[in-house]
Amino acid sequence: MRRLPGLIVPLLTVPLLALAGCGGGGQARTAPPSVPASPSPLSPSPDPAPSPSPSSTRNGLCVPTMYMSTAGRLAYLKDLSDSSHGASPAFFMTDSGVYLLAKETQRPCEAVPFQLSWFRVEMTRAGSGSSARYSFTYAPIESTTLSAGPRDGRVVGSVPPPPKGCSGTLSVLYVGEEITEDDLPDGLNMPGGSLDWSLVTLDADRALSAVFKPPAGASSC
Length: 221
Prior knowledge:
The chain is built from one helix and 15 strands, in the order E-E-E-E-E-E-E-H-E-E-E-E-E-E-E-E. The chain has one helix at 70-79, and strands at 2-3, 7-8, 16-17, 28-29, 37-38, 55-57, 60-62, 91-94, 97-100, 112-126, 133-148, 153-155, 167-174, 198-199, 207-213. The radius of gyration is 18 Å and the shape is elongated.
């Protein structure tokens, strides 16, 4: 557990993007309740193998992922683009879980394993209004291995634990070695606008996405 310095927290406006057209890296997207669940889990895959080219199937093209290395899976999931809007990430996370929405030509031929870690974020508030400061303390909740694809949808088992009391939830999506408290940011921004969660940037290259959801009563903590 580590204590983080306080952060002045202005009400930031997080761009609200439709699920099918949301970008990564600092932009947020909403998740539609109608998206079907994606199956999980997958049997372990051996490590060293080059990333293969798309293969032909009865229904079109797909990308074989069974024998991808860890680095190959990370690169593949980072490069997936959205089935409707081209340049938008197709493998992403919101406050309601992890989603896959891949182009048919980039779709995995089988489910692709990845890791997900959740952290409790204890929050202590000082001041009020725009001058409010929060100090944060991280504590691990759980880490798990899940798999996404080959169908589109929300990954089964990826819904994060809800915030409670004066503690929020930080969810981290990654491939490779487990994310630890040392990989987490020194400060967090409170969400603003119409969203009650925000995307978080981690320095770790293996991190694909991170989402912070504060407790509903953070202003009184």
